[in-house]
Amino acid sequence: MPKASDITILETRCAFEPIQFRCPIKFGGRVMDKATLINVEVRVETRNKKQETGFGSMPAAAVWAWPSTAVAVDQAEEAMKQFAADVVELAADYPDYAHPIDITEQFEGEYEHQAKLVQQKLKLAEPMPYLAQLVAASPLDAALHDAYGKVHGKNSYNTLSSEYMNHDLSNYLDKSFKGEYLDKYTLREPKPTMPLYHLVGALDPLTPADVQKKVGDGLPETLGEWIKYNGLTHLKIKLNGDDLAWDVERVLAVERVAVEAQSARGCAQWHYSLDFNEKCANVDYVLEFLKKVKQGAPAAYDRVQYIEQPTHRDLKAHPENKMHEAAKLKPVVIDESLVDYESLLLSRDLGYSGIALKACKGQSHSLVLAAAGQKFGMFLCVQDLTCPGFSFLHSASLAARIPGIAAIEGNGRQYCPSANRRWKVQYPPMFEIKDGTVGTAVLNGVGLGF
User: Fold this and answer.
1) Which domain holds residue 313?
2) So what's the pLDDT on residue 27?
Protein backbone atom coordinates (compact mmCIF):
# COMPACT_ATOMS: atom_id res chain seq x y z
CA MET A 1 0.00 0.00 0.00
CA PRO A 2 1.19 3.54 -0.73
CA LYS A 3 2.61 5.34 2.30
CA ALA A 4 1.26 8.62 3.63
CA SER A 5 4.90 9.60 4.06
CA ASP A 6 5.63 9.36 0.30
CA ILE A 7 6.72 12.52 -1.50
CA THR A 8 6.37 13.99 -4.95
CA ILE A 9 8.59 16.61 -6.58
CA LEU A 10 7.24 20.11 -7.09
CA GLU A 11 10.26 22.06 -8.22
CA THR A 12 13.97 21.53 -8.98
CA ARG A 13 16.97 23.75 -9.55
CA CYS A 14 20.49 22.93 -10.74
CA ALA A 15 23.47 25.30 -10.54
CA PHE A 16 27.23 25.01 -10.94
CA GLU A 17 29.97 26.39 -8.71
CA PRO A 18 33.63 26.53 -9.81
CA ILE A 19 36.27 25.58 -7.23
CA GLN A 20 39.94 26.41 -7.56
CA PHE A 21 42.52 24.22 -5.79
CA ARG A 22 45.33 25.66 -3.67
CA CYS A 23 47.63 22.98 -5.10
CA PRO A 24 47.19 20.18 -7.64
CA ILE A 25 46.38 16.57 -6.80
CA LYS A 26 47.77 13.69 -8.86
CA PHE A 27 46.24 10.23 -8.94
CA GLY A 28 46.16 7.46 -11.51
CA GLY A 29 48.58 9.37 -13.70
CA ARG A 30 46.20 12.34 -13.94
CA VAL A 31 46.45 15.81 -12.39
CA MET A 32 43.50 17.82 -11.08
CA ASP A 33 43.76 21.48 -10.03
CA LYS A 34 40.15 22.66 -10.15
CA ALA A 35 36.62 21.33 -9.85
CA THR A 36 33.01 22.22 -10.48
CA LEU A 37 30.33 21.55 -7.88
CA ILE A 38 26.93 20.41 -9.09
CA ASN A 39 24.42 21.96 -6.67
CA VAL A 40 20.79 20.83 -6.69
CA GLU A 41 17.71 22.04 -4.80
CA VAL A 42 14.48 20.07 -4.74
CA ARG A 43 11.13 21.15 -3.30
CA VAL A 44 8.93 18.19 -2.38
CA GLU A 45 5.42 17.66 -1.06
CA THR A 46 3.78 14.86 0.92
CA ARG A 47 0.32 13.47 0.23
CA ASN A 48 -1.07 15.76 2.93
CA LYS A 49 0.45 18.80 1.17
CA LYS A 50 3.33 19.45 3.56
CA GLN A 51 6.30 20.94 1.69
CA GLU A 52 10.05 21.20 2.28
CA THR A 53 13.23 21.85 0.30
CA GLY A 54 16.33 19.66 0.20
CA PHE A 55 19.84 20.29 -1.08
CA GLY A 56 22.57 18.15 -2.64
CA SER A 57 26.07 18.94 -3.86
CA MET A 58 28.93 16.99 -5.43
CA PRO A 59 32.02 17.71 -7.57
CA ALA A 60 31.64 16.61 -11.18
CA ALA A 61 35.16 15.05 -10.99
CA ALA A 62 35.37 13.87 -14.61
CA VAL A 63 39.07 13.12 -14.09
CA TRP A 64 38.03 10.21 -11.87
CA ALA A 65 34.58 9.31 -13.20
CA TRP A 66 35.43 9.49 -16.91
CA PRO A 67 39.14 8.94 -17.63
CA SER A 68 39.40 8.86 -21.41
CA THR A 69 41.78 9.21 -24.31
CA ALA A 70 38.91 10.07 -26.66
CA VAL A 71 37.13 12.75 -24.61
CA ALA A 72 39.09 15.60 -23.02
CA VAL A 73 38.57 16.27 -19.29
CA ASP A 74 36.91 19.65 -19.86
CA GLN A 75 34.59 18.13 -22.45
CA ALA A 76 33.73 15.25 -20.13
CA GLU A 77 32.96 17.65 -17.30
CA GLU A 78 30.75 19.75 -19.55
CA ALA A 79 28.86 16.58 -20.55
CA MET A 80 28.39 15.61 -16.91
CA LYS A 81 27.05 19.08 -16.12
CA GLN A 82 24.63 18.84 -19.05
CA PHE A 83 23.53 15.39 -17.91
CA ALA A 84 22.97 16.64 -14.36
CA ALA A 85 20.90 19.59 -15.57
CA ASP A 86 18.82 17.33 -17.83
CA VAL A 87 18.11 14.79 -15.09
CA VAL A 88 17.18 17.53 -12.64
CA GLU A 89 14.84 19.07 -15.20
CA LEU A 90 13.32 15.64 -15.83
CA ALA A 91 12.75 15.24 -12.08
CA ALA A 92 10.59 18.36 -12.02
CA ASP A 93 7.98 16.43 -14.01
CA TYR A 94 7.94 13.40 -11.71
CA PRO A 95 4.24 12.38 -11.58
CA ASP A 96 4.07 9.98 -8.62
CA TYR A 97 4.55 9.80 -4.84
CA ALA A 98 7.27 7.53 -3.43
CA HIS A 99 10.23 7.13 -1.09
CA PRO A 100 13.50 8.77 -2.30
CA ILE A 101 15.13 5.38 -2.92
CA ASP A 102 12.28 4.37 -5.24
CA ILE A 103 12.24 7.75 -6.98
CA THR A 104 15.97 7.45 -7.66
CA GLU A 105 15.56 3.88 -8.91
CA GLN A 106 12.95 5.07 -11.39
CA PHE A 107 15.20 7.90 -12.59
CA GLU A 108 18.10 5.49 -13.08
CA GLY A 109 16.04 3.81 -15.78
CA GLU A 110 16.29 7.07 -17.75
CA TYR A 111 20.03 7.63 -17.33
CA GLU A 112 21.17 5.70 -20.40
CA HIS A 113 18.74 7.54 -22.67
CA GLN A 114 19.67 10.93 -21.22
CA ALA A 115 23.38 10.11 -21.62
CA LYS A 116 22.83 9.26 -25.30
CA LEU A 117 21.07 12.58 -25.83
CA VAL A 118 24.01 14.41 -24.24
CA GLN A 119 26.47 12.47 -26.40
CA GLN A 120 24.56 13.47 -29.53
CA LYS A 121 24.17 17.09 -28.47
CA LEU A 122 27.85 17.58 -27.62
CA LYS A 123 29.10 15.27 -30.38
CA LEU A 124 31.16 13.18 -27.97
CA ALA A 125 33.54 10.55 -29.31
CA GLU A 126 32.33 7.93 -26.83
CA PRO A 127 29.31 7.28 -24.58
CA MET A 128 29.25 8.65 -21.05
CA PRO A 129 30.28 5.87 -18.61
CA TYR A 130 27.67 4.78 -16.11
CA LEU A 131 29.95 5.85 -13.25
CA ALA A 132 29.97 9.40 -14.62
CA GLN A 133 26.18 9.29 -14.88
CA LEU A 134 25.91 8.26 -11.22
CA VAL A 135 28.23 11.05 -10.10
CA ALA A 136 26.36 13.70 -12.09
CA ALA A 137 22.98 12.53 -10.77
CA SER A 138 24.09 12.09 -7.15
CA PRO A 139 23.26 15.67 -6.01
CA LEU A 140 19.63 15.12 -7.02
CA ASP A 141 19.52 11.86 -5.05
CA ALA A 142 21.06 13.58 -2.02
CA ALA A 143 18.60 16.48 -2.26
CA LEU A 144 15.65 14.05 -2.28
CA HIS A 145 16.86 12.30 0.89
CA ASP A 146 17.56 15.67 2.51
CA ALA A 147 14.09 17.00 1.65
CA TYR A 148 12.39 13.77 2.71
CA GLY A 149 13.97 13.89 6.15
CA LYS A 150 13.16 17.57 6.56
CA VAL A 151 9.53 17.27 5.51
CA HIS A 152 9.06 14.60 8.20
CA GLY A 153 11.17 16.43 10.79
CA LYS A 154 13.60 13.52 11.01
CA ASN A 155 17.14 12.61 10.13
CA SER A 156 16.95 10.90 6.74
CA TYR A 157 18.86 7.87 8.10
CA ASN A 158 15.93 7.33 10.44
CA THR A 159 13.43 7.12 7.57
CA LEU A 160 14.73 3.80 6.23
CA SER A 161 12.47 1.35 8.08
CA SER A 162 9.30 -0.42 6.98
CA GLU A 163 7.40 2.54 8.42
CA TYR A 164 8.68 4.69 5.57
CA MET A 165 10.03 2.44 2.80
CA ASN A 166 7.57 0.87 0.37
CA HIS A 167 9.77 -2.15 -0.39
CA ASP A 168 12.18 -4.34 1.55
CA LEU A 169 15.75 -4.82 0.37
CA SER A 170 14.90 -7.85 -1.76
CA ASN A 171 13.40 -5.37 -4.23
CA TYR A 172 16.83 -3.83 -4.84
CA LEU A 173 19.15 -6.79 -4.15
CA ASP A 174 17.92 -10.41 -4.05
CA LYS A 175 15.58 -12.72 -2.14
CA SER A 176 18.09 -13.33 0.65
CA PHE A 177 17.21 -9.80 1.86
CA LYS A 178 13.49 -10.56 2.08
CA GLY A 179 11.89 -8.80 5.05
CA GLU A 180 14.97 -6.66 5.73
CA TYR A 181 15.06 -2.88 5.57
CA LEU A 182 17.86 -0.36 5.63
CA ASP A 183 17.31 0.47 9.29
CA LYS A 184 18.93 -2.90 10.05
CA TYR A 185 22.13 -1.78 8.34
CA THR A 186 22.34 1.85 9.51
CA LEU A 187 22.78 3.53 12.90
CA ARG A 188 20.09 5.61 14.60
CA GLU A 189 22.70 8.11 15.81
CA PRO A 190 25.97 9.05 14.09
CA LYS A 191 29.21 7.78 15.57
CA PRO A 192 30.41 10.65 17.81
CA THR A 193 33.90 10.87 16.29
CA MET A 194 35.77 9.17 13.48
CA PRO A 195 39.43 9.17 12.38
CA LEU A 196 40.22 11.31 9.34
CA TYR A 197 42.11 9.84 6.39
CA HIS A 198 44.57 12.40 4.97
CA LEU A 199 45.53 12.06 1.32
CA VAL A 200 49.18 11.84 0.28
CA GLY A 201 48.94 12.61 -3.44
CA ALA A 202 51.65 11.61 -5.88
CA LEU A 203 52.77 15.25 -6.19
CA ASP A 204 52.50 16.13 -2.52
CA PRO A 205 55.80 17.06 -0.86
CA LEU A 206 56.78 14.84 2.05
CA THR A 207 59.69 16.91 3.35
CA PRO A 208 60.86 20.55 2.98
CA ALA A 209 63.36 19.35 0.37
CA ASP A 210 60.43 18.22 -1.82
CA VAL A 211 58.78 21.67 -1.89
CA GLN A 212 59.43 23.21 -5.31
CA LYS A 213 57.22 26.26 -4.78
CA LYS A 214 55.49 27.15 -1.53
CA VAL A 215 51.76 27.79 -1.58
CA GLY A 216 52.28 30.31 1.20
CA ASP A 217 48.72 30.46 2.50
CA GLY A 218 49.50 29.50 6.09
CA LEU A 219 48.48 25.88 5.74
CA PRO A 220 51.04 23.04 5.95
CA GLU A 221 53.26 22.49 2.94
CA THR A 222 54.64 19.01 3.74
CA LEU A 223 53.34 15.71 5.08
CA GLY A 224 55.30 16.11 8.30
CA GLU A 225 53.68 19.49 8.88
CA TRP A 226 50.19 18.12 8.14
CA ILE A 227 50.66 15.29 10.66
CA LYS A 228 51.55 17.79 13.38
CA TYR A 229 48.91 20.33 12.32
CA ASN A 230 45.97 17.89 12.33
CA GLY A 231 47.28 15.19 14.69
CA LEU A 232 46.85 12.69 11.86
CA THR A 233 46.67 8.93 12.44
CA HIS A 234 45.40 7.78 9.02
CA LEU A 235 47.22 8.40 5.72
CA LYS A 236 45.97 7.43 2.26
CA ILE A 237 48.89 7.02 -0.15
CA LYS A 238 48.34 7.49 -3.88
CA LEU A 239 50.57 5.19 -5.95
CA ASN A 240 51.37 4.88 -9.66
CA GLY A 241 50.66 1.18 -10.20
CA ASP A 242 53.04 0.97 -13.16
CA ASP A 243 56.36 1.79 -11.50
CA LEU A 244 57.16 -0.76 -8.82
CA ALA A 245 60.35 0.87 -7.58
CA TRP A 246 58.66 4.28 -7.25
CA ASP A 247 55.61 2.85 -5.48
CA VAL A 248 57.67 0.92 -2.95
CA GLU A 249 59.96 3.87 -2.26
CA ARG A 250 56.96 6.20 -1.91
CA VAL A 251 55.52 4.09 0.90
CA LEU A 252 58.92 3.78 2.57
CA ALA A 253 59.43 7.54 2.29
CA VAL A 254 56.00 8.20 3.82
CA GLU A 255 56.90 5.80 6.60
CA ARG A 256 60.16 7.63 7.34
CA VAL A 257 58.40 10.99 7.54
CA ALA A 258 55.53 9.57 9.60
CA VAL A 259 57.84 7.86 12.08
CA GLU A 260 59.67 11.12 12.72
CA ALA A 261 56.52 13.24 12.96
CA GLN A 262 54.57 10.77 15.08
CA SER A 263 57.50 10.16 17.42
CA ALA A 264 57.80 13.91 17.98
CA ARG A 265 54.20 14.06 19.17
CA GLY A 266 54.24 10.78 21.09
CA CYS A 267 51.94 8.80 18.78
CA ALA A 268 52.68 5.08 18.59
CA GLN A 269 49.89 3.85 16.30
CA TRP A 270 48.78 5.02 12.86
CA HIS A 271 47.47 3.50 9.63
CA TYR A 272 47.84 3.61 5.85
CA SER A 273 45.53 2.86 2.96
CA LEU A 274 46.98 2.34 -0.51
CA ASP A 275 45.37 3.47 -3.76
CA PHE A 276 46.71 2.44 -7.17
CA ASN A 277 43.71 3.91 -9.05
CA GLU A 278 43.44 0.80 -11.27
CA LYS A 279 46.92 1.19 -12.77
CA CYS A 280 48.36 -2.22 -11.78
CA ALA A 281 48.62 -4.68 -14.66
CA ASN A 282 47.66 -7.62 -12.47
CA VAL A 283 47.60 -8.99 -8.93
CA ASP A 284 51.22 -10.12 -9.26
CA TYR A 285 52.25 -6.46 -9.21
CA VAL A 286 50.37 -5.98 -5.94
CA LEU A 287 51.89 -9.09 -4.38
CA GLU A 288 55.42 -8.10 -5.36
CA PHE A 289 54.80 -4.58 -4.10
CA LEU A 290 53.59 -5.82 -0.70
CA LYS A 291 56.55 -8.19 -0.49
CA LYS A 292 59.05 -5.40 -1.08
CA VAL A 293 57.33 -3.00 1.32
CA LYS A 294 57.42 -5.68 4.01
CA GLN A 295 61.12 -6.27 3.35
CA GLY A 296 61.90 -2.57 3.41
CA ALA A 297 59.83 -1.62 6.44
CA PRO A 298 57.88 -4.36 8.24
CA ALA A 299 56.16 -1.75 10.42
CA ALA A 300 54.89 0.11 7.34
CA TYR A 301 53.45 -3.13 5.96
CA ASP A 302 51.70 -3.78 9.27
CA ARG A 303 50.15 -0.30 9.19
CA VAL A 304 48.38 -0.94 5.86
CA GLN A 305 44.67 -1.09 6.66
CA TYR A 306 43.42 -1.84 3.14
CA ILE A 307 44.17 -1.55 -0.59
CA GLU A 308 41.84 0.17 -3.04
CA GLN A 309 41.05 -1.28 -6.45
CA PRO A 310 44.47 -1.97 -8.02
CA THR A 311 43.48 -3.12 -11.53
CA HIS A 312 41.20 -2.08 -14.41
CA ARG A 313 37.65 -0.96 -13.58
CA ASP A 314 36.09 -3.06 -16.35
CA LEU A 315 35.76 -6.33 -14.42
CA LYS A 316 33.94 -8.20 -17.17
CA ALA A 317 36.63 -7.40 -19.72
CA HIS A 318 39.40 -8.49 -17.33
CA PRO A 319 38.25 -11.64 -15.53
CA GLU A 320 41.90 -12.64 -15.21
CA ASN A 321 42.42 -9.90 -12.58
CA LYS A 322 41.64 -12.02 -9.53
CA MET A 323 42.45 -10.61 -6.10
CA HIS A 324 42.25 -13.76 -3.96
CA GLU A 325 45.96 -13.96 -3.14
CA ALA A 326 46.27 -10.25 -2.30
CA ALA A 327 43.11 -10.36 -0.19
CA LYS A 328 44.72 -13.06 1.95
CA LEU A 329 47.27 -10.43 2.99
CA LYS A 330 45.20 -7.23 3.22
CA PRO A 331 41.58 -6.26 2.52
CA VAL A 332 41.23 -5.34 -1.17
CA VAL A 333 38.24 -3.08 -1.81
CA ILE A 334 36.33 -2.54 -5.02
CA ASP A 335 35.95 1.15 -5.88
CA GLU A 336 35.62 2.45 -9.46
CA SER A 337 33.92 -0.77 -10.61
CA LEU A 338 31.23 -0.70 -7.91
CA VAL A 339 28.23 0.76 -9.75
CA ASP A 340 25.47 -1.74 -8.92
CA TYR A 341 24.68 -5.02 -7.15
CA GLU A 342 25.83 -7.09 -10.14
CA SER A 343 29.29 -5.50 -9.99
CA LEU A 344 29.45 -6.20 -6.25
CA LEU A 345 28.71 -9.89 -6.80
CA LEU A 346 31.24 -10.06 -9.63
CA SER A 347 33.92 -8.41 -7.51
CA ARG A 348 33.40 -11.01 -4.79
CA ASP A 349 33.84 -13.77 -7.35
CA LEU A 350 37.10 -12.13 -8.41
CA GLY A 351 38.43 -12.12 -4.86
CA TYR A 352 37.71 -8.61 -3.64
CA SER A 353 37.09 -8.66 0.10
CA GLY A 354 35.80 -5.13 0.65
CA ILE A 355 33.78 -2.31 -0.87
CA ALA A 356 34.47 1.42 -1.08
CA LEU A 357 31.27 3.41 -0.72
CA LYS A 358 31.07 6.91 -2.18
CA ALA A 359 28.35 9.51 -1.70
CA CYS A 360 29.15 10.65 -5.24
CA LYS A 361 27.62 7.44 -6.61
CA GLY A 362 24.33 8.35 -4.94
CA GLN A 363 22.92 8.18 -1.43
CA SER A 364 20.43 5.46 -2.38
CA HIS A 365 23.08 3.39 -4.18
CA SER A 366 25.48 3.68 -1.23
CA LEU A 367 22.93 2.67 1.39
CA VAL A 368 21.74 -0.40 -0.49
CA LEU A 369 25.24 -1.65 -1.31
CA ALA A 370 26.36 -0.96 2.27
CA ALA A 371 23.64 -3.35 3.41
CA ALA A 372 24.87 -6.01 0.99
CA GLY A 373 28.48 -5.54 2.05
CA GLN A 374 27.56 -5.96 5.71
CA LYS A 375 25.50 -9.06 5.08
CA PHE A 376 28.40 -10.61 3.16
CA GLY A 377 30.88 -9.77 5.92
CA MET A 378 33.02 -7.55 3.67
CA PHE A 379 35.43 -4.79 4.71
CA LEU A 380 33.69 -1.41 4.33
CA CYS A 381 35.09 2.07 3.85
CA VAL A 382 33.72 5.41 2.64
CA GLN A 383 35.87 7.24 0.09
CA ASP A 384 36.16 10.92 -0.73
CA LEU A 385 36.04 12.74 -4.08
CA THR A 386 37.93 15.83 -2.88
CA CYS A 387 34.57 16.91 -1.52
CA PRO A 388 34.32 20.41 0.00
CA GLY A 389 31.61 21.91 2.18
CA PHE A 390 28.20 20.27 1.91
CA SER A 391 29.50 17.33 -0.11
CA PHE A 392 32.11 16.51 2.55
CA LEU A 393 29.50 16.67 5.32
CA HIS A 394 27.27 14.41 3.23
CA SER A 395 30.07 11.88 2.76
CA ALA A 396 30.91 12.05 6.47
CA SER A 397 27.27 11.54 7.47
CA LEU A 398 27.21 8.39 5.35
CA ALA A 399 30.36 7.06 7.04
CA ALA A 400 29.05 7.96 10.49
CA ARG A 401 25.78 6.07 9.99
CA ILE A 402 27.09 2.78 8.59
CA PRO A 403 28.39 0.18 11.06
CA GLY A 404 31.94 -1.00 10.45
CA ILE A 405 33.26 2.06 8.63
CA ALA A 406 36.73 2.62 10.06
CA ALA A 407 37.47 6.22 9.10
CA ILE A 408 36.46 9.23 7.00
CA GLU A 409 38.31 10.58 3.99
CA GLY A 410 38.30 14.34 3.64
CA ASN A 411 40.90 15.98 1.44
CA GLY A 412 38.96 19.08 0.46
CA ARG A 413 40.62 20.81 3.43
CA GLN A 414 44.00 20.08 1.77
CA TYR A 415 43.28 21.04 -1.83
CA CYS A 416 40.31 23.44 -1.85
CA PRO A 417 39.86 24.80 1.71
CA SER A 418 38.32 28.05 0.49
CA ALA A 419 35.14 26.13 -0.36
CA ASN A 420 34.83 25.06 3.29
CA ARG A 421 34.77 28.53 4.86
CA ARG A 422 31.08 29.05 5.50
CA TRP A 423 30.58 25.42 6.54
CA LYS A 424 33.55 25.58 8.91
CA VAL A 425 31.78 28.37 10.83
CA GLN A 426 28.64 26.23 11.23
CA TYR A 427 30.34 22.89 11.94
CA PRO A 428 33.81 23.52 13.42
CA PRO A 429 34.21 19.94 14.79
CA MET A 430 34.12 18.69 11.18
CA PHE A 431 36.74 21.09 9.83
CA GLU A 432 39.02 22.08 12.71
CA ILE A 433 41.07 18.90 13.08
CA LYS A 434 43.46 18.70 16.04
CA ASP A 435 43.55 15.05 17.15
CA GLY A 436 43.17 13.31 13.80
CA THR A 437 39.41 12.90 14.17
CA VAL A 438 36.27 14.66 12.97
CA GLY A 439 33.36 15.32 15.32
CA THR A 440 30.56 13.52 13.53
CA ALA A 441 28.21 13.85 16.53
CA VAL A 442 27.09 17.18 15.06
CA LEU A 443 25.64 15.41 12.00
CA ASN A 444 22.40 14.52 13.77
CA GLY A 445 20.01 17.13 12.43
CA VAL A 446 17.00 16.69 10.15
CA GLY A 447 17.53 15.73 6.53
CA LEU A 448 21.01 14.44 5.79
CA GLY A 449 22.03 15.56 9.26
CA PHE A 450 23.33 19.11 8.89
Assistant:
1) 194-442
2) 83
